[in-house]
Each structure stands twice: as structure tokens, then as C-alpha cells.
Design goal:
Layout: H1 38-41, H2 68-79, H3 87-92, H4 96-124, H5 129-175, H6 189-205, H7 216-235, H8 244-247, H9 255-264, H10 267-273, H11 288-296, H12 299-308, H13 314-343, H14 351-354, H15 363-395, H16 403-423, H17 427-436, H18 438-454, H19 465-494
Bound molecules: asparagine.
GO cellular component, one term: apical plasma membrane
Membrane topology: Multi-pass membrane protein
Domain Amino acid transporter transmembrane: 65-490
């Protein structure tokens, strides 16, 4: 099938996190061209975007105003999310060396994938992920790309709601100064997640424009930095081993007391519990690559950030990407290492929840919890905006804005995600499934096959080294996806999963 010649104006703002300066200066109507109404496409961004009066109207003519440093910040922001909370668990099931090797590999592959995206977008002047899909395979390509982005965003929202479900009861418990989790409704994560969804997230998601909410993503990154500092600090505070009998004891006790009780345990046992492993393989190792892939997904954001960049060149954008990936790589490794070295094999799939094994009244951890909870609560509506827009584009194309539809889509989406979170046994299932399906598609498979199709054969023959490399990259993605999915399904079917559950 030949790539369609016409260019299509698809979603220019795939994720509401990076809206500034993204409004096209002008959009030409051409014959045969199905051009989306920019007023409709960007209706949710109105008032948040600035139009440039000085430029001539051209299809790809966006006036990028964002500096190099700010773009690094924006992309880092897109990379960083709930994935960081699962990495210590991944390290506990791979060992430090194997983890480092895999994390390095995923980071390098992620950077290569951005190289493919930038090269493909340069050829056709495309600045949105789905547009690449359209250019490569027509409407099916665009739909599949939109579907993967939607699935990834639904996964991200589910993981955020899961954090609310697991952390909010602990925060309330601490504020009420209760010694033990009781069966009252306000300490039940499922009720709390519904309550937060209805009272905070839904009203925000019903706004017609993102407005200042779009800026709150910067706050999320700061919260994650705060989380990382707390994880490093806690490594030197929390004794090892945590006496198992203290796990269920709540109430005030000092670290000295914990350490003394730990001393009472046998020395060899303690040594075994507190020795890091450098290379581990077990049934849970299957989740490692999906967790890492999930953690590095930022690819739908790369082209919009490229569009916003001041004096954009592929080289400059690649530098932006490499720097963001490197910074996140270091943060991910530190969070995983210190989280693992605090709890060793007892680390849970959601690292922050593991600290409830130590001291539920710890002020630092309480502050981290409140910060992370605020960040994820504000991020859910931001991620919901592009998902709703994608659904609207797929199902109700070219239709006038309707409040009923706007409210209904948000309500149905939030209801489904709530049900998913209530019935999901743990966050690992979310990281596992999303990290083994949409994440490898967005990082490996799509950039490679889009590249293969978009770069003209006159420029790079099908058997040229870059194209063969791209195909190998797609195959690697397919292999990782099949392997991860099979191992996860085997793990579920055999019922082995211990999952480091957080309840
Ligand atoms: N942007 C995403 O889809 C996920 C993000 N990389 C995270 O770790 O949460």
C-alpha cells in the first residue's frame, strides 16, 4: 500500500501537558485534504495558547518559543511518572547488575526510537505521532497510533488512581493518629478513590479548557524529585532487617528501638535479608522490561515538544531528548537502588507504600505521600483531556461541541478506570499489561515501521543499513512484547505471583 500523499491535520496536542505555542499559525485547506477544524482541535487549549501574529500561515509553521533548557524540562516531565515507583521492585527481581544493564538498554533504545521519529517527521514535516501513522499507513496507521496512545494514557491514569487507592488511607490514618487500620469506610482505598474521582477529578475533567491546570505537570516533577530525595535519605534511616514482627505493629517507635529488636534476630538471617543481589531471575523478573518500558514512554510528546522548540533542528531536539533521558535514567537508577537497598526483597511493587512497613507516623514520608497524592490527582484530568479528544475524533468526527457528550465521555472514562483500579489486585498488573502492550508499540514497533514506510526508497533503499536496523528494532519490540506478555500470563495462570501487594 502506498503512503497517502495528502497530509492530514490530526491531533496536534496529543497530550495536554505541553500546550504552549502549539497552535498552528494557519492551516491551509487543500483539495482532497481532510483538514480538521483548528477551533475544534484546540478548543480545550484556547486561552492557554498564544498565537503569533507575525508569521505567514503555513501548515507546519509553528513559532517555537521554548528554550533548550525548558524543552529538556518538558520532556523530562513527560517521561517521569508513576513508573518510578515500580523500579525498586524490578531491581529486587533482577539484581543490581542485570537491572542496570536492562535500564541502560531501554534508555539507549528509547533514544534511538526518538531518532527514528525525528528523522521521519523531518522528511514530511509532521509534528504529531498519529500524523506519522497516517503518513505511513493512512487512516489505519493513524487509528492504531491513537489507540496505543489512548491505552497508554488510560494505563497511566489507572496507575495514578491506584496510588490514591493505596496511599490516601495511610495519610488519613496518620492524620487521625489511628494506630491500626480499621474497617471504617474512610480508610477503605476503594471508597476513597471513588470519592476523590467524583469530588476532585471529575469537576476538573469537565472543564472545557485546561487553563492553568496544564502547568501543574511541572509540580509533579518536583514532587518526584522530593520523593527521590526522601528515598535516598531513608536508606540511611531505616534499619535492616525490619523485624518481621514489627511489620504489623503500628504506633510510635524510634529507629533505635527497631534496630535493637533487629539485633535480636539471628545474625545469619539478618545478613541474608540485608545482602543485595547482583543477578536474580525469578517469575517476577518478567515484569522488569514492561515496568522499564512504561517508565520511559514519552514518545507521543516528542514531536509537540520539537514543535515548540526555538530554532528547531533535528540535532538540537535529539540533544534535548538525550539529556532528558539521561537525567531520568540517573533518577530512575537512584530511586530503584536506594529503594531496593532499604527493603531488599521486601520492597513492594509500589515503593512508596513499602514505607508503611517502617513507621506510619513518619513526617517526611507523610509529606512525600501528600505531595505525590496531590501531583497524581492533578495529573489525571490532564491525561484525560487528550484521551477524550481522541475518542471524540474517532467516534464523533466533525461534530459540533456538545456538553452532554463532553460530560458523558469523561464520566464513562473515569467510571471504567475506577472499576479497573478497584478490581486490579496491584499496580504491577497495570505496569505489566500497559508496559507489555502499548509501551513497546509506542517505543519500538511504530517508530520503526513508520520510519521504514515514510523515508523514500530513493533516499534510503529498503536494504540500506538504517532501514534494516529499523526493521530489527521493530522485531526486537515485537519479541519483547510477546515474551513479556507470555511470561506475565504464565505467572497469572500458575498463580505464583506474590506481586509485593500493597494491601
Ligand atoms: N508517560 C507515560 O505514559 C508514563 C510515564 N513514563 C510514567 O512513568 O508514568
Amino acid at each position: 500500500m502506498d503512503a497517502p500523499l495528502q497530509t492530514e491535520m490530526v491531533e496536534l496536542v496529543p497530550n495536554g501537558r505541553h500546550l504552549e505555542g502549539l497552535l498552528p499559525v494557519g492551516i491551509p485547506e487543500a483539495d482532497n485534504q481532510r483538514v480538521e477544524d483548528p477551533r475544534q482541535s484546540c478548543v480545550e487549549s484556547k486561552g492557554f495558547l498564544q498565537k503569533s501574529p507575525s508569521k505567514e500561515p503555513h501548515f507546519t509553521d509553528f513559532e517555537g518559543k521554548t528554550s533548550f533548557g525548558m524543552s529538556v524540562f518538558n520532556l523530562s516531565n513527560a517521561i517521569m511518572g508513576s513508573g518510578i515507583l515500580g523500579l525498586a521492585y524490578a531491581m529486587a527481581n533482577t539484581g543490581i547488575i542485570l537491572f542496570l544493564f536492562l535500564l541502560t538498554a531501554i534508555a539507549l533504545l528509547s533514544s534511538y526510537s526518538i531518532h527514528l521519529l525525528l528523522k521521519s517527521s523531518g522528511i514530511v514535516g509532521i509534528r504529531a505521532y498519529e500524523q506519522l501513522g497516517y503518513r505511513a499507513f493512512g487512516t489505519p496507521g493513524k487509528l492504531v497510533a491513537a489507540l496505543a496512545i489512548t491505552l497508554q494514557n488510560i494505563g497511566a491514569m489507572s496507575s495514578y488512581l491506584y496510588i490514591i487507592k493505596s496511599e490516601l488511607p495511610l495519610v488519613i490514618l496518620t492524620f487521625l493518629n489511628l494506630e491500626k487500620q480499621t474497617l471504617v469506610w474512610y480508610l477503605n482505598g476503594n471508597y476513597l478513590v471513588i470519592l476523590v474521582s467524583v469530588t476532585v477529578i471529575l469537576p476538573l475533567a469537565l472543564m472545557r479548557q485546561l487553563g492553568y491546570l496544564g502547568y501543574s505537570s511541572g509540580f509533579s516533577l518536583s514532587c518526584m524529585v522530593f520523593f527521590l530525595i526522601a528515598v535516598i535519605y531513608k536508606k540511611f534511616q531505616v534499619p535492616c532487617p525490619l523485624p518481621s514482627n514489627l511489620t504489623n505493629i503500628t504506633g510510635n517507635f524510634s529507629h533505635m528501638e527497631v534496630a535493637e529488636k533487629a539485633q535480636l534476630q539471628g545474625e545469619p538471617e539478618a545478613a541474608a535479608l540485608c545482602t543485595p543481589s547482583y543477578f536474580t531471575l525469578n517469575s517476577q523478573t518478567a515484569y522488569t522490561i514492561p515496568i522499564m518500558a512504561f517508565a520511559f514512554v514519552c514518545h507521543p510528546e516528542v514531536l509537540p515538544i520539537y514543535t515548540e522548540l526555538k530554532d528547531p533542528t533535528k540535532r538540537k531536539m535529539q540533544h534535548v531528548s538525550n539529556l532528558s533521558i539521561t537525567v531520568m535514567y540517573v533518577m530512575y537508577f537512584l530511586a530503584a537502588l536506594f529503594g531496593y537497598l532499604t527493603f531488599y526483597d521486601r520492597v513492594e511493587s509500589e515503593l512508596l507504600h513499602t514505607y508503611s512497613q517502617v513507621d506510619p507516623f513518619d513526617v517526611l514520608i507523610l509529606c512525600v505521600r501528600v505531595a505525590v497524592l496531590t501531583a497524581v490527582t492533578l495529573t489525571v484530568p490532564i491525561v484525560l483531556f487528550p484521551v477524550r479528544r481522541a475518542i471524540q475524533q474517532i467516534l464523533f468526527q466533525n461534530q459540533e461541541f456538545s456538553w452532554v457528550r463532553h460530560v458523558l465521555i469523561a464520566t464513562v472514562l473515569l467510571t471504567c478506570i475506577n472499576l479497573l483500579v478497584i478490581f486490579a489486585p496491584n499496580i504491577l498488573g497495570i505496569f505489566g499489561i500497559i508496559g507489555a502492550t502499548s509501551a513497546p508499540c509506542l517505543i519500538f514497533i511504530f517508530p520503526a515501521i513508520f520510519y521504514f514506510r515514510i523515508i523514500p526508497t530513493e533516499k534510503e533503499p529498503a536494504r540500506s543499513t538504517p532501514k534494516i536496523l529499523a526493521l530489527c528494532f521493530a522485531l526486537l519490540g515485537l519479541l519483547l512484547m510477546t515474551m513479556s506478555l507470555s511470561f506475565i500470563i504464565i505467572d497469572w495462570v500458575s498463580g505464583n505471583s506474590q506481586h509485593g501487594g500493597s494491601h
